[in-house]
Design brief:
alpha/beta; Rossmann fold; 8-stranded mixed sheet; two-stranded antiparallel sheet; about 15% strand; globular
């Protein structure tokens, strides 16, 4: 999996176990699938999963890890990966933009990324195989980049991993459970919500002003392969300025969330939301309690590596300390009936502290 701010890796065991405690859930709709890490874990547990994300790179990851079947893809994908790994480098858009104008990759890897991506485009692969191969390329590029995990900036000095030659690997594909098909959509959240029926919806919306498109613009370009106009030191895609989400706006986020929840066609709902987000716990609970029995879990965890490093100026000099090094993730569970099992400890990441409360219990661990 690629490095990703907002990834639920730390709280994944808690999320999966929580959904498993909701009676009658056989299918889950992941409305903002991101890296597809949650959807992949649910597919592995035998759920039918629908993963959705409007960003092209995230839709590709969902297509690979949720929709594609290992039994159908592994042999062909392995052979193609071997072919792509043998290609010599050929400088192009990635090399010029992200090795010379900026420093996200070393040139020897940028040239290989260009050659591999161009070859994928020439092959005109069927959708499932294309998603698997593009995911292999995204993950390979992520393993040799020179960032702290965000593409808003690159490191002043080359990261040690950037010296390694890029090498594609077969993604960890899964087979779906019999009678529980999985699929991937690339729609805006509200449009997807109006179309998908499932036993449970999982919502992990953007929670503050930082756009995932801006944070991972290189992955978007690698999938779209449109060689866009770019701007700024980080050479962001020009459409980062125009493709805005209401969830990234403090003014619009609450209304957008209310409208999305109202559109859902699922009897159960799980929402993951950071205490750093635009919507406060009390406000969130006042809305969600209208849709069923509400229980809230809170999980304490360390912030991403960039926060731990501190605040630096454009020259790389440390100029300040961040205000805090830990966050709280709230998991809101809306079900048709109370889930008594949630009053018992939930298996969480070993570094997390978990507390459970009712909508009227304002404790934060």
């Amino acid at each position: 999996m690629i490095k990703y701010l907002g990834s639920k890796r730390r709280i994944l065991p808690t999320l999966v176990e929580t959904i498993g405690r909701i009676a009658g859930v056989r299918s889950v709709f992941d409305v903002f699938s991101g890296t597809a890490r949650v959807g992949q874990a649910l597919k592995a547990r035998g759920y039918g999963v629908v993963g959705n994300d409007a960003n092209a790179y995230a839709h590709t990851l969902a297509h690979c890890y949720i929709a594609a079947e290992r039994r159908q893809m592994a042999t062909a994908a392995t052979a193609l990966i071997d072919e792509l790994n043998a290609l010599p480098g050929k400088p192009g858009f990635i090399t010029h933009t992200y090795c010379e104008r900026s420093r996200f990759f070393q040139p020897h890897n940028g040239e290989r990324i260009d050659a591999i991506r161009e070859r994928i485009e020439q092959l005109a692969l069927p959708p499932d195989l294309r998603a698997v191969i593009l995911t292999a390329l995204l993950e390979a590029a992520d393993r040799v980049d020179s960032t702290t995990g965000l593409q808003m900036a690159y490191l002043k000095q080359w990261a040690p991993r950037s010296f390694q030659p890029i090498q594609l690997r077969l993604p960890a594909l899964l087979n779906s459970a019999p009678g529980r098909p999985c699929r991937a959509l690339g729609l805006e959240a509200r449009e997807a919500a109006a179309r998908v029926e499932a036993d449970c919806a999982y919502l992990d919306p953007p929670y503050n002003q930082h756009s995932y498109l801006g944070n991972y613009h290189i992955w978007e370009t690698l999938v779209r392969w449109d060689q866009p106009e770019v701007y700024g030191v980080a050479c962001k895609r020009i459409d980062c300025r125009s493709r805005k989400s209401a969830f990234n706006s403090k003014v619009q986020a609450w209304q957008a969330f209310c409208e999305l929840v109202a559109e859902l066609r699922t009897p159960n709902l799980v929402v993951s939301f950071s205490n750093e987000g635009f919507i406060a716990r009390g406000t969130m609970e006042s809305l969600l309690a209208r849709y069923g029995h509400l229980q809230t879990l809170t999980i304490d965890y360390r912030r991403y590596i960039g926060a731990q490093i501190g605040i630096h100026d454009p020259a790389g000099r440390r100029v300040g300390q961040v205000s805090h090094l830990r966050n709280t993730e709230h998991i809101y569970v809306v079900s048709r009936e109370p889930i008594e099992a949630l009053t018992k400890p939930v298996a969480a990441h070993q570094a997390a502290r978990v507390s459970i409360g009712s909508p009227h219990d304002a404790r934060v661990s």
